[in-house]
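To assess whether ligand presence alters the predicted conformation, the chain was also submitted together with flavin-adenine dinucleotide. Input:
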Amino acid sequence: MSIDVDASIGALRQSLEGVVLAPGDTDYDAARVCFNALVDRRPAVIVRCIGAEDIATAFDYARSHDLEVAVRGGGHNPAGHCVLDDGLVIDLSAMRRVEVDPDARVARAQGGSTWSDFDTSTQAFGLVTPGGVVVSTGVAGLTFGGGIGHLTAQHGLTCDNLVGAELVVPDGSVVQVTEHENAELLYGLRGGGGNFGVATQVEFRLHPLERVVGGRLDYRGAGVRNTLRRYRDVVGGSPRDLSCQAVVGVNESRTPELLLAPCYTGSRTDPVELETLRSAPGLVSDDVRARPFLEQQLVLDSPYGMNRHYWKGHFVRELTDELIDELLLRIVEFGQPQSHVLLESLHGAPKDVAASSSALAYRHAAFNVSVMAVWSEPEADDRHIVWARETAAAIEPWSLGGGYANYMQADEPLERIRGSYGEAGFERLRALKRRHDPNNVLRRNQNIPPS
Ligand SMILES: Cc1cc2nc3c(=O)[nH]c(=O)nc-3n(C[C@H](O)[C@H](O)[C@H](O)COP(=O)(O)OP(=O)(O)OC[C@H]3O[C@@H](n4cnc5c(N)ncnc54)[C@H](O)[C@@H]3O)c2cc1C
């Protein structure tokens, strides 16, 4: 820590309602851990804020001490954007209150809320908004990148359900965002990431939902190839009451494995689509049944801070037989059981929304295909990163031209960020950035430089 920061930290502690964590403080090391164990950084100071005034004070302190700023919500971004060496972290993990207005069918979540906080609060009223599939992920962080999950086909991307926010922008002022006030910011927050300000609160439209038919179907063996084709045909073409993600990998003996996570919310007891998936080759386990939505949200998980991750992918126009074969070949050749490819279908409600209402491009894609290298030994870094890069490159012929910002690593070039929004969308976001963060203070993200 610089002498300047060291000497002034006492005054910073006094000026906040929240807590300051500096090297040597008891909770400092726990507070700098993020989801991806590949990232191990030591901030000069972590400001655990409890409201807009603390956030403005943190911005002010960073400016006057020439510190770079990172923002931490749930800590899940695989790029590790929530933590930085020698800079200041605006940590929102103490701001997790969620208020539900069941009559108006809206929920307001504080900027550090996780999906666990959110779903528990809204499900108490039999309501829901489509969120992420791992409940420790941050609500605001996921929403600002788009948001694909178990209810995407039914209710769209998470950002499509975002109706308002309160932001503290880097000059310390508070900006209200609704469909009528600063509506251009609402467009930017729907996919443009944490580029425009720190959200103290995000507000969502809610939908009635209590029970789903969901869980997981596991397949193994050579039949996985044909089951994946069936998954593509059934899910990609299914009615919007069925969302279903697929995870393709191998076991220790390089045998292909496939996990499907259907989430059906229609009124039929035995929907034909589920029957068709169940009868596909290689099924070894089936725990799909009627269950509360909160249980569905626990079907997929990934341990926090344990494994090293490198993800890269593309929105594709179609999932052809050739692409399925290519992915399977590369997964089996690599033969690493933790590493996998995630397939997320974008059929149904995402297609209802006008492209101009959200920054996230490629809602017209058939699938989001993400190569996810996962490992634990540092000496295996290069091998896994090369595999993820080469496998993602092999998807390119089917790509619509962009990837999913929420899954991007920090080494993505500006061209890939631009590609995620399309030329016109990127320029629109750059103009918005110039208005609210002209000095690019919020650059520890999938960054949109001001125009
Ligand atoms: C295990 C796992 C599961 C995931 N599942 C899904 C999924 O199902 N669907 C999906 O779409 N994505 C998913 N993601 C990706 C995830 O949505 C993004 O990485 C997202 O950025 C994580 O947000 P966070 O707050 O948890 O992370 P953080 O690392 O804390 O934050 C990431 C960035 O988000 C911004 N941010 C966070 N909170 C705020 C705020 N209040 N105000 C302003 N900016 C903010 C900041 O720029 C910050 O650097 C998953 C990631 C992981 C690791």
